[in-house]
Amino acid sequence: MSGEPGVRRAFGDIAEAYEAFFPALGRYEGRVERFLAEAVPPGARVLDMGCGPGLFTRELPLTVDVVGLDLSPEMLAVARRGRPTGTYREHSFHEPLPAELGRFDVALAVGCLDFCEDLPGALRHLAQGLVPAGRLLFTVLERRAGLEGHEAARWRVPEADPVVELCFWSFADTARALETAGLVPRAYAHAPGWVRLSDERVMHFGWWDVEVIPGVGRPSEDWIR
Question: Can you give the pLDDT at residue 219?
Answer without folding.
Answer: 44
